[in-house]
Amino acid sequence: MAHGRPGLTGPLAAAALPLGFLAVFFLWPVAAIVRLGLGPGLGAVLTAPRTWEVVGFTLGQAAAATAVAVVTGLPVAFLLARTSLRGNGFVRAAVMVPFVLPTVVVGLAFRSLFGEGGPLAIVLANAFFNVAVVARTVAALWSHVDRRAEDAARSLGASRLRTFTSVTLPVLRPAISSAAAVVFLFCATSFGVVLLLGGGEYATLETEIYLRTVQLFDLTGAAALSLLQIASVVAVLVLGAFLRRRSTALRLRGRADTTRRPAGGEWAVVAAAYLVVLALLVPIASLVAKSFESGLDGYRALGGTGFRGSLQVTGWDAVLNSLRAATDATVLALVLGGISCIALVTLGRSRARPSLVEGIDTALMLPLGVSAVTVGFGYLITLHLLPGDLRTSPLLVPLAQALVVTPLVIRTLLPVLRSIDTRLRQAAATLGATPLRVWREVDLPLAARSLVAATAFAYAVALGEFGATSFLARPESATLPVVIGRLVARPGELNNQMAYACCTLLMLVTVAIVIVVDRLRVGTVGEF
C-alpha cells in the first residue's frame, strides 16, 4: 500500500521540542526544589506547629470549597445536560466566566463583599472559581446517560428523588468524583484568593511558600513546604486520573443526548441552577460597582503610579506589559501545544505502543499538577545557571505563563484532531497530497474553531496569571495582576480605587473572550 501507517521517527522528533521545553522549564526547577527541600531543614519544618496549621487550613478550606462547588454545580449540570431552554447559552457562558477570571480579580471581588475576608470568603471564592468544573464535567456525562432506566424506575412508582439517588447518581458518581478531585486540587493550590482574603492570619501552603521566599528569605523552609505540596498534589492527580478513566468508560457506553423541557419537580432544580448563576454574578457586579464608587477617579489614576508612588510603572504601562507578555506566552503555547498535538495524533495512528502515547500525553500535563508559585520559586534557584541568566530577562514571564497555558491548548485541540475521520486523510494522501498538505488542507480547517478557542482561553489565562508572575515580574515590567496585588497591599484610598479599576478592565477582557468561545461552542473544562 502506497500510504501506510506513519513511522515513529518524525512524530518522536516533533515531540522532543515540547518535552525539552518541559524538561528545562518545569522538571529542572521542580527537581531543584525537591533537592533543596530534602536538605537539613526538612525535619525542622515538618515538626513546626505552624506547618501543620497551614496544612490543616489548606486541606480544610479546599474540602469545604469542593463541597460547595459540587452542591452548586450539580443543578447547573442538569440544566445544561437535560434541558433545552433558551437561556442555556447564557448559563453556559456565565459559569465559565469565573473559571477563567484572574485570581486577584476574584479575590478583590469577594473582598468588596466581605471586607477583609476570612475563611468563609476564601471558601466561597474558591467555590466560585470551580462551579464550572463540576457543571461542565458532570454535564458531559449526564447528557449521554440513557433515560430508559430512569423512565423504568418512574413507571414502577419511584419518586423523582429516589430515581435520581438510586439510578442516575450511581452512573454520575465517577464524573462527580473526578470533578471533585480536580476542584480540590485547584482549591488546595489557590494563591491570589488566599493572599488577598487571608489578611495575614490565614495561609495555605501556596501563600506560605510565597511569604517565606519573598518576605522571610527562608528558601530552605519554602522548599520543604513545596515538597509537601507536590506530594499532596501528586496523590490528588493519581486519584483524579483513576476516576476520570472510569468516567470516560461510562460516557462511551451512553447514548446520544436527548434534551427536553423540564417536567414536574425538575423545575425546582432548574430554579436552583438559575439561583446559582445569579449568585455567580453578584461578586462580579459588586466589583464593577466598587470601581465606580468614587466616580472615574480610579480609572483616571491609571495614568499615574498610585498613592505616593506605590508602583514603578503606571497602570496603563502595566496593561501594556500584560498584553505583551500574554501575547508572547500564547504564541509560544500555540507552537508547543500544536506540535504536541500533531505528534500525539500521529503516534496514535502509527505503530507506537499506546503506553508511549499516554506517557507523553501525561508528561505534557504535569504543569497542571504543580502550583505556579512552586514553579516560579524553582526558576529563582535554577535559571541563573543558564547562559545569560534568564532571571533578569523580559522573556521569563512569558516562558512561565506558556508553561501554564500549553496544557490548556493541548486539551482543547487534541480531542478534535483525534476525532477527525482518517478516511478523509487517506483520500487526500491517495490524491498525492504530502503529509504536510494533509494537515493543512484537512486537519486544520476541521480544527479551526477549536484552535480559535484554544488561543482565546490561553490568552485569557496568561493575561490573568498571578502565581508564577508574582515571583518573576520585575518592578518595571509588572503585569496588571501583579500591580493589583501591590496596590491592595499598600495603604491609600487611591491605591484601592486603582486596584478595582484594574480588576474591572481585566474582567471585561475575560468576559469578552468567554463570549467568543461560547459562540464557537467549544468546551475545555471537561477535557482535563
TrEMBL record:
<dbReference type="InterPro" id="IPR035906">
    <property type="entry name" value="MetI-like_sf"/>
</dbReference>
<feature type="transmembrane region" description="Helical">
    <location>
        <begin position="54"/>
        <end position="81"/>
    </location>
</feature>
<comment type="similarity">
    <text>Belongs to the binding-protein-dependent transport system permease family.</text>
</comment>
<feature type="transmembrane region" description="Helical">
    <location>
        <begin position="93"/>
        <end position="114"/>
    </location>
</feature>
<feature type="transmembrane region" description="Helical">
    <location>
        <begin position="179"/>
        <end position="199"/>
    </location>
</feature>
<protein>
    <submittedName>
        <fullName>Thiamine transport system permease protein</fullName>
    </submittedName>
</protein>
<feature type="transmembrane region" description="Helical">
    <location>
        <begin position="219"/>
        <end position="243"/>
    </location>
</feature>
<keyword id="KW-0813">Transport</keyword>
<feature type="domain" description="ABC transmembrane type-1">
    <location>
        <begin position="319"/>
        <end position="517"/>
    </location>
</feature>
<dbReference type="Pfam" id="PF00528">
    <property type="entry name" value="BPD_transp_1"/>
</dbReference>
<feature type="transmembrane region" description="Helical">
    <location>
        <begin position="120"/>
        <end position="142"/>
    </location>
</feature>
<feature type="transmembrane region" description="Helical">
    <location>
        <begin position="446"/>
        <end position="464"/>
    </location>
</feature>
<keyword id="KW-1133">Transmembrane helix</keyword>
<feature type="domain" description="ABC transmembrane type-1">
    <location>
        <begin position="55"/>
        <end position="238"/>
    </location>
</feature>
<keyword id="KW-1003">Cell membrane</keyword>
<feature type="transmembrane region" description="Helical">
    <location>
        <begin position="12"/>
        <end position="34"/>
    </location>
</feature>
<feature type="transmembrane region" description="Helical">
    <location>
        <begin position="264"/>
        <end position="289"/>
    </location>
</feature>
<keyword id="KW-0472">Membrane</keyword>
<feature type="transmembrane region" description="Helical">
    <location>
        <begin position="395"/>
        <end position="417"/>
    </location>
</feature>
<feature type="transmembrane region" description="Helical">
    <location>
        <begin position="498"/>
        <end position="517"/>
    </location>
</feature>
<feature type="transmembrane region" description="Helical">
    <location>
        <begin position="329"/>
        <end position="348"/>
    </location>
</feature>
<dbReference type="InterPro" id="IPR000515">
    <property type="entry name" value="MetI-like"/>
</dbReference>
<feature type="transmembrane region" description="Helical">
    <location>
        <begin position="360"/>
        <end position="383"/>
    </location>
</feature>
<keyword id="KW-0812">Transmembrane</keyword>
<keyword id="KW-0997">Cell inner membrane</keyword>
